User: Fold these one by one.
Assistant:
Number 1:
Amino acid sequence: MSAAPPPCIILNEPQLAENIGAVARVMANFGLHDLRLVRPRDGWPQARAWASASGADWPLDNARVCQSLEKATADLTWVIATTARPRETQLPVHTPRQAAADLSARVAAGQAVGLLFGGERAGLETADIALCQAIVTIPIDERFRSLNLAQAVAINAYEWRMTVFDQPRAAFDHNLAPPAGQAAMLGLYEHLERELDEAGFFHPPEKRPSMIVNLRSALGRGGLTEQEVRTFRGVVTALSKGRGRVLAKRAAALAAEQAANQKD
Amino acid sequence: MSAAPPPCIILNEPQLAENIGAVARVMANFGLHDLRLVRPRDGWPQARAWASASGADWPLDNARVCQSLEKATADLTWVIATTARPRETQLPVHTPRQAAADLSARVAAGQAVGLLFGGERAGLETADIALCQAIVTIPIDERFRSLNLAQAVAINAYEWRMTVFDQPRAAFDHNLAPPAGQAAMLGLYEHLERELDEAGFFHPPEKRPSMIVNLRSALGRGGLTEQEVRTFRGVVTALSKGRGRVLAKRAAALAAEQAANQKD
């Protein structure tokens, strides 16, 4: 299998065009080129982004603007979310070095991968992180945690570059099928959640968002293959519809019998 | 001997106050505090530096302004110069990782050490580099070598921090619950498989064993926690019983209605 392109950089709701330009610059410094912008606050394109890229125009010229994080990651098989703090998810937490080693092995195996960064002010929501397969946290000093967005990209991009450059690469197991794309995972999540809604699983209703985060991160971090996603969708259908049909038939038979008895 | 303070950051003839502020910010991010400015182009202090430090004021408040690189480095025992290109010197050339390991060992041994960065436009002169003991070169992509000053500081400061913080897993993993025991996993598997048997999921029957292997390995490799196992058992119950109950009730109501109609 041939290597996939280097990781894409996904900026979720970035605010300042200057920062987007600075991100493009460090991407070019470290050999990355695929930039995706989810709902940039001030619209796109923004001349100030090109001004602050210092000539690293190509990531900006080819940037993809997406209306949702789901769309921005649909073609990827593995997305690592950058957050400043450990979150209440069960996703594995990597250093930038560990994340780069993981991404490097996946790219060598032909997988399309990405690094996700939140906006300047708020970072990523837990629901955004639940769409990802792992977390990367930069080892910031607790006493001053305000890391510039382009700096966060730079450090992860530098670690990526070091894996390309240094080659102490983890052996990749060629027997493993690659993970399913994010679009397929999202299809599974939504199918499962729809059926659980029908079954009245999410109660009390205000806990629904956090229950969904827990379900998604538990399913997501295993790296399900396309085949496994199909299998699990079959499981959801069988449990919700198959069993329902059996019980409904039984109940209908029982009711009909009762009706017949009443007629007798 | 007790450890020396972390490396100082020496900026030789920096041009833009914004960049000096951005350097202070990444220093604070990674636990550095000793900033030395050699002949800053626009004088010192500069309000714009504080504005771009985003609150990381202390490296700026305590910055030492020096009229020569010799004076700025007089109290140090080991200075590593950052340059974009290998130079015609006989100094060893390190990656940021190697440089950080070297500086870390020296600091542990009580040595006062520093990292030297050139100005934005021209970088360091060979004569400046000759005052140093080693060179650090960031592995930039040859196609776009223009690295922002604060980014160069950030990557070296990050590598320093990684040497201090080399038990990152211990610090990061405290939020991860351990995986559930095998007995709990087996309980989940058997619960799921029992319901899938009821729903007629395993067909043709001779494929049942391999389908079970696939389901179990997909669920097992994510390392579900005890809590997640309970959640998934709730999911199985909700899908199989909850939905079934809803449908069964509906069917029973329908049958009862039909029976009532027939009686009318």
Note: The beta strands of chain B are 8-12, 35-38, 64-66, 78-82, 93-94, 113-117, 134-136.
Number 2:
Amino acid sequence: MSNVQPILLNGTWTASSSAQSIQVSNPATGETFPEHFPVSNWDEIDRALQAAHEAFLTVVNWPGERFAAYLEDYALALDAHKETLAQIAHSETGLPAPTRLAGNEIPRTTNQLRQAAQAARQSSWRIPTIDTKNKIRSMYQSIGPAVLMGPNNFPFAYNSISGGDFATALAAGNPVIAKAHPLHLRTTLEMAKLAQEVALKHKLPAGLIQLLYHMSPEDGLKMLEDPRVKVAAFTGSRTAGLKIKHACDKHGKPVFLEMSSVNPVYMLPGALTERGPELVEEFAGSCLLGAGQFCTNPGLVFLVDNPSSQAFLQGVAEKFSAAQPQIMLSTQGRDSFHQSLKFLQKEGAQLVVGGAVVDGHDSKHQPTLLKVTGDQFLSKMTQFQEEAFGSSSLFVIVKDVAQMIVIAGQLQGNLTGSLYSSRDGSDDEIYNRLAPLVNRNVGRLLNDKMPTGVAVSSAMNHGGPFPATGHPGFTAVGMPASVRRFSMLCCYDNVRPERLPVELQDKNPGGIPRFVDDQWTTNDIVTN
Amino acid sequence: MSNVQPILLNGTWTASSSAQSIQVSNPATGETFPEHFPVSNWDEIDRALQAAHEAFLTVVNWPGERFAAYLEDYALALDAHKETLAQIAHSETGLPAPTRLAGNEIPRTTNQLRQAAQAARQSSWRIPTIDTKNKIRSMYQSIGPAVLMGPNNFPFAYNSISGGDFATALAAGNPVIAKAHPLHLRTTLEMAKLAQEVALKHKLPAGLIQLLYHMSPEDGLKMLEDPRVKVAAFTGSRTAGLKIKHACDKHGKPVFLEMSSVNPVYMLPGALTERGPELVEEFAGSCLLGAGQFCTNPGLVFLVDNPSSQAFLQGVAEKFSAAQPQIMLSTQGRDSFHQSLKFLQKEGAQLVVGGAVVDGHDSKHQPTLLKVTGDQFLSKMTQFQEEAFGSSSLFVIVKDVAQMIVIAGQLQGNLTGSLYSSRDGSDDEIYNRLAPLVNRNVGRLLNDKMPTGVAVSSAMNHGGPFPATGHPGFTAVGMPASVRRFSMLCCYDNVRPERLPVELQDKNPGGIPRFVDDQWTTNDIVTN
């Protein structure tokens, strides 16, 4: 087959021995791009695993500085190719090149790489803990080869060769095997070329950064179960995520999974009375952004049945009707979105506005608003918590606040939960009853704010209870915490001083904050 | 049935409605104690779950101080009843009352409770992280009802109503449902009475601390899968542990599992040449301690085939022959130990010394030394890594250092790994090749030290890669890290200042170390 792209295997761009391949299309035109990307067979997956395994033994004692320097240079390379990369990604995803991609997502991505570099350099994620009396010292350290599987909706910021998982897995000192997402294979290849060039310049071992495009689901799970893989990360559908989780769980391997979220928004009565029109703007802006293709799209809204809520619903419906349908990430994604909306309607949700695919080859769907009563919702909790990935939301019109509280106590885990309340304090009593229920059921609790927009901040938690993720103690965003997803806790008991990792030795030339004899300090340890 | 003991359900000592019960025996005499302990049915498990669920809603916003004060008073109560408790536990476990129990384990247990109290009071486990610019604040918080299942070998320090899991689950602010271990039901009941008395004094909600003795395996797994349970901890056999893991994994619930470990010891050639007799003492002391019934018993020793190793083996064999067999925790435990030793021999291990049950009703077994060659070990890696829980060790006589390294790279995860090397540096090259392999395969790497003896230290890691535990990022021992096993990460985005948890508000009257705008500080936040 002509035009088959090479895989990045053990430091070399290598022709795949597989006869199978996949291609990617332009969602704005339906046109298929000429490049073929191999579906890797087990032989080459095995070679990648072996190379990663060997690379880990090479870098296991490297200081964070070497990874930091690499990440920063790679960020520079991405910045330098920003316009080209944005154009390629635009052609694969339909996302606006100047505003969303070059203007926003690529800078966010290189910022993440730089923050990860800083975490690697400062060892802030390691929590070095020292007990001088007992001669016991411990900290988080690299764990080994990481398999990364990014989602469809962020060709840069969550891409397995450039995104948050890549940045943090490497910052922790782990080899990375990136699996491309099938919707942006060309973008991924282009970045991997840069990643590889910079890796050569930095003399990284051959198997430290590798790229495979695709594989059979069976081989993918076999790879995750292989003892040479020590950790994995996945962002995508719940169906795939649960299979990946099971494969890793069987072997007790840490795996970070982000597996869909409906992000409940609770509109308390006083807030709607006080500032309904303002909230219409806020909600519609959030739900229409990026064709609603965000993990944090506000997909479920709770409103008490009263005139203010009706006005809010009416206002949002008007906004949705007036909104221009946007190009979605793929025609498959649009069709899957449509199926999810059909499913919700089949279960009894009433269509308020939208609901239809837009004719044409440009992957568009009408923004869609659905509604159910609180009683309906309670009778089919599982079904009505199904995510529809696009500009849509299910409004749940509850009888009263008591019903809202009952539902809040029974919802599945989500990435976020938003509570809007009045400024005059009239909602405070309801807030105080709802907040603890929502708080422990989500990764991030918001007040008077929509969940879209995930700041890359040390205090961010982009995580949450199952089934939103696989474990409520970890976050995909925010340094240094997100680095710890790719680590293990290592303890040194009576280990001779010169054999300790530098971060645990008496001298602390890097001024790392360390927990020494139960106190945080950046000082050297002076022993008598 | 007469003499059936009540369960601690929803704050009240309650007669079980179950017709089934279990009893406990004295391992030193074979005598069965008269008390019956109910096997709880689903109805009472369900009531316990509901009570725990409701208790959580009551305490969800309580400051750490309230849990701290409880834990400290409970520690005082245990101290005050130390002699009685030690006698009861001695009669159930055969462990020496004055030295091991009253003299060592109970003080360790109350020390753990006090360290957990300090962690709760100081919020040191929460890692409060604040981004003032973006108005995002996050920290680890309580997660909800915890089911705790302790092991047979520590009637106090790991008991589900007094041990490290109990202390840390409560310190994090979670309700606890303790399941007693069947080998020390009377001890557990006695402590639960104290726990309950102190709870009443502290006006804790009724469902915060509950005790069930036993249940069917099916009901146990059903309990773990119930949505009201949010986290669990288990220390015990791999067979049970894997079932518990699966039940929790299905629902993405954090679970800390300690599931057996053989704790490899690598005796490098120079160390044995240099100080063989000293190492014989050290090894035999560790392996014979407490009848070898420790998670960290040195169960696997690697030696290069040479005269020093033969002398070491001979020396240990003599120590084992001369050692007085000790009362084991139970006759069942002794029999199970014996079966494990038989299994290893069936697989080809050669008996060096010991191997037999000691006649009589006092649950004794000879200390046992087995050996295999490195080739044998490599041909049956899984079999020869089976734990035999008692005073025994499998010596692996490898051909050469290269074979030792090959094996080290393929071992299962363990709690600990010990490397003994010469003081003159002649083993350093071997050490440097072995250490990275051992390091990433264990929770704690030791130099010139046996793994038994787990200091309760902030820097301790009593954890490790699967299958020793369920996740390599968590530890069962060491405050504050072990508290985080029972927590989730909670983020507050734009949440109104007065609604934030106290630890995340601008004022920091407790002087908690917080990571504010990427710097550790104990200061208040001054916003303009």
Note: Chain A is about 40% helix and 20% strand.
